[in-house]
Amino acid sequence: MHAVINFVISIWVPLVCMLLIVAVLPLVAGYIVLMERKVMADMQARLGPMRVGPHGLLQPIADAVKLLLKEDIIPEEADKAIFWFAPLISVTAGMLAISPLAVGPWFQIADLNVGLLFIVGISALGIFGIVLGGWSSNSHYSLLGALRSAAQLVSYETAAGMALVGGLMLAGTLSTREIIAAQSDYGVWFVFAAPVGFFIYIVASIAETNRAPFDLPEAESELVAGYMTEYSGFRWALYFLAEYTNMVVVASIATTLFLGGWLRPFAGTPAFNFLDYLPTVLLLVVGAYCFYRVPKQPVQIQKAVLAAVGLGIIVVAGILAAPLFAPAGSMLASAKPGLHGAFWFILKVGLYIYLFMWLRFTFPRYRFDQLMRLGWQFLIPLSIVNVMGIGLALVLHRQFGWSHWTAFPLTILLTLAVAGWLGWAGEKQERKQAVAGEA
Amino acid sequence: MLDQAVFYFFAALAVISAVLVVTRRNVVQSAIFLITALLATAGIFLQLHAEFLFIVQVILYAGGIMVLFVFVIMLINLDVSLHQVQFNRQWWLGLLLALVLGAQLTIAVAVGRSGLPLGEPAPASMLEPSTQLVGKVLFSEYMLPFEIASILLLVAMIGAVVMGKKKI
Fold first, then answer.
1. Is the ipTM of this complex over 0.95?
2. Max CA pair span of chain A
3. How many domains does chain B have?
4. Which of B58, B67, B68 has its CB closest to that of A122?
5. What is the mean pLDDT of each run of 10 residues along chain A (439 residues)?
6. Structural domain contains residue B122
7. Full residue range of the structural domain in which residue A134 is found
8. Which domain, by its residues, includes B167?
9. Which of A123, A141, A129 is nearest to A218 (CA)?
10. pTM for the full predicted model
11. A80, A116, A128: which to substitute to probe chain B, counting the most B Cβ within 10 Å?
12. Is residue B84 part of a domain?
């Protein structure tokens, strides 16, 4: 029996995951858009999409159909071939980058020796789609958007890369699977060992995915829609898909390296084993809420759809609960790490994306010179200091026998002191320039 | 069999796009074919189980240097270069030299094949992960050249900053 399971896991799971990425990712991206609109509406005290389906749950499908049916306009003066395939580069790079991700111990397409570098490197190729699309449109708005995008990406990739180096030094490996295993060995997630690195990665990853407050490549008040001004219909949708795929990718990198991947909170502590029931309870509450809302829907069909959604969620809750109540040692009980790992991974990715949305609706857009100053004068020096700090902590621990509990807090405090000094110096310089500008 | 097919696919892709880089009139198209050539080379690295070289090729050349190339090309007025003479008058000499070099290499491989001691390729499962190997060799055997190269890069970087800034 176990041989059969091993065969299925080794051959079929990667294939199924591959199909899932191509088939389901557009749907996931659509629902992230819906979630974003709902979160935005909530923060602005509105309701958001409510018409298509119960609480707007079918809105992404309606949007996708609309985009597919729209005319695909190619400007007369555009470089047609490049205009035609530029969006494909972005989408392909985004989807390819997902392949080494380990969503739970079961769901992974390829465990590469250079996993994390592969994700970072391949997703960085997506910039060509933006740059070439902006250039080939033969429009000034598009070109300016593409230029801004290239400059921004090149600047922030350094900071993001150095932030990742800090985490990788702790893990000692590049393979996504082994990084999570290393966090399990340490007993803490790397966000607690390298909080400054995590902060740098959050900021840099927002800039890399071109999202507010760093969405200068598509600043609608200045550049219409930036690099995708001339795009319409399906090609425009492909750019959108690439953007949201990239969000998933950076969220997954942060989850894998800093937030413990598929590990449950307090995975090594038996006292917290009751947290195993959290996925089931959480989903049951959501499913029950769906049923609570059913009678309040205005139309019969919406009642049916909402009831079906609630039922689906409760079924998933049942699947997650089954391994917990199965007798120990049975086949069902051995499915627990795979299923629960996937739940925790997706939950963490979702929370990270929620953080992105939260930041988007709270901060005003940066000016371009502010963006560049933040990247080059604050984040890059700080990320280098962070790497040195983690190196120092590792040396203190390994060579001088200090315990983790003294070495890491000490170096974190040092790094924070440097961060404070950098911020203070930058503020002073900015004030001086402002005074010089007025005179 | 599959290995060979993959190799010839990437090799042909690299050669064809390299030829297109120099023959295309449009600079942006040249740049795109240069990216293709670099990625095809990366594919050959991957086929040889040199994962680290593969990803470094992708990150540094395709993702880093070529982005800067394209960035600069977009600021150039393309109409000027479209009407300029693309090759100077010695192009046939260059072609001749390239052909001679190619012929030499072909003959050297054809003649020396029997005398060349080619070991049996190790099975992929026996290979040590290349990332760790590269790291170990760089920081032990080739420590000094590695550090000298990094200092050279630092000097070049500082030089670029000094030349770019009016007032330091």
1. no
2. 81
3. 2
4. B58
5. 69 76 85 89 86 83 87 79 87 87 76 83 86 83 84 85 87 84 82 86 88 75 76 85 90 89 79 80 87 83 85 86 75 76 88 90 83 84 88 83 77 83 82 71
6. no
7. 69-263
8. 129-168
9. A141
10. 0.84
11. A128
12. no
